[in-house]
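pasting for ref. prot 1 ->
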Amino acid sequence: MSVSPMHSAPDDGVNQRRAELAELMKRFAPQDGVYSTAIDTLNIVRCDQPTDALHVVHKPGLCVIVEGRKEVRLADERYVYDPLNYLVVSVTLPLAGQVVEASPERPYLCVRLDIDPAQICRLIADASAIGVPPPKTGRGLFLDRIDSPLLDAVLRLLRLLDSPDDIATLAPLAQQEIFYRLLRGTQGQRLQEIAIPDTQTHRISRAIEWLNTHYAEPLSIDSLAQMINLSPSALHHRFKAVTAMSPLQYQKQLRLQEARRLLLADNSDVSSIGYKMGYESPSQFSREYSRLFGASPSKDIARLRAQALQVDSA
């Protein structure tokens, strides 16, 4: 399944703000890479050329593309977005992201802002008199078109990078407005259902966080369901509705991504890493690794290391 946001022609004011954003980002991200900023929760991502798929465990966050184009995969679903569209990840998800349009003249530029569910919950309480769309079930990931008020709030946040003395006071206000605009948007209920305690989706988010901490351990669906106060059938149904995966499939993605990280980080042999991640045999580990990453562990790691050497020598 492929999902793309709706498009409409931006007005001159939107184009002007987008151009200002791009110039700010190029100054603070002068070449390829992911750049942290003086605002702890804000990162700037730049790519000067298309990339291979990068597998990551994505924490809750807002991503706004200012230039370029990107494809994100969640299980078998594809989400494609480009300038002035945004992606929200409301729960921790194993994703594969690939920049599909970028060049040195027009690099891929993306603003990434961490989302704090506790802050979202406080905003919901404060905004109740104004109105937030009612909760609906759905994926823990969605795309939408950015509107002028949200774009203005994002631009104000990035402008603060030029006045670091103002960040401590004004950045929290700008971030609060950004989250408020997301909540008031057409898909604001996706954030609302994750943040409000005791909803079924909030319980699923607790199961997700438990899996992210205990992914190498044997998984008992009955025990996990009991921990979050859902029946096993409700756990399976709601978990798949949010993540596009069953709990076991989700755990498998976490195990394989961590195995890949460990194989890149040290010289441990493939078998020992597979056993560490809970696989009973090297052949099972290699088979599932190849299914996710497109090559056996040894070939995949050799390719990644060769790419890293090319980047270092460039």
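and prot 2 ->
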Amino acid sequence: MRGTVLAAVAVTAALTLAGCAKDSGAPSGGGTAAGSPCKLAPKPPAAAAGTSGSKTPEKADGSALKVGLAFDIGGRGDASFNDSAAAGVDKAITDLGVKKENVKELSAGPNESEDAKQTRLRQLASDGVNPIIAVGFAYADALKAVAPQFPNTKFAIVDASVEGAPNVTPLVFAEEQGSFLAGVIAAYKTQKCNVAFVGGVETPLIQKFEAGYYQGAKAAAPDIKLDKKYLTPAGDFTGFQDPSKGNAAANGLIDRGADVLYHAAGASGKGVFSAAKAKGVMAIGVDSDQYNQKTVEQERDVIISSMLKRVDVAVFDYLLAVAKNDLAALPKVFDLKVDGVGYSTSGGKIDSELQAVLEGYKAQIIAGQIKVSDKPTS
């Protein structure tokens, strides 16, 4: 697994630089970070009113739905990806009238077999659960086998699509767009001009987070140093549920100079936060607003922001579409334009000046003026 400093990420010509000195001070809550801060690229134009992807809330009657959640490893309580999916179902209980007793949740185990995944999905479908949401790309092969066996059951899968299965709806995201904004945040908050990424498992999906983060950091601070560490290689999904590995990886990156760490590592991110707190540096969470997560509240002071991958929005919108019998209304990709990804401001570390910068970059991405890559350059 690599831990070397990466080469610079190419950015759009619209962001060509004429660096100006950074004006932010030491990271609030970080304490000991020191060194020469980055020189920042010119700030983007202010976002025009109405460029956000806000939408009018819709209503439907979901009282007849029997909802199944097949969680990824970690399940409800992972302070990340699965919790966000659960929040979407919880919102459907509140807003659509889905009955709590009609929600069935089952969780995966680390490195389990495909048979185990298929058994879980078959159990839900055989029990009359409809629709069923598979949380995570690891269910793709299992759904390819199971979905045709239950053609009248509606399935959805987060982070993947299943070819040849018309009853499976993909819920996919522009993680690279939200991660771009996380990179901008890191560039504005670092005091060493050195930031890093911790990935749970080295897969194309997690590399989307890395790619966007690096591109955003380089757009905001062209001379910034970038580092990374993946916890496990592709195929070994324990990287999403091993806080000790997250802690060790974060400590290594901090020792090499990074003072802002962004993780896309599921429950392993708890170890990243604890390392950041112990070493007096800062961190950026992922998926949910991790500043408000009970399982990491002891480390919340080091969390600048979280890249919001709105699995909750996608799950709720999917259940709304099922209740309305209108799956065609769902977006093809949950991106910045539809608030499918974004950033949090909890904790007060994103001031109005930085938020204006973030909204400016966000508007340029939505308008297509900035093209965010979903693949690392090296």
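The chain has nine helices and 13 strands.
Residues 174-309+341-366 form a domain with the Rossmann fold fold (CATH 3.40.50.2300).
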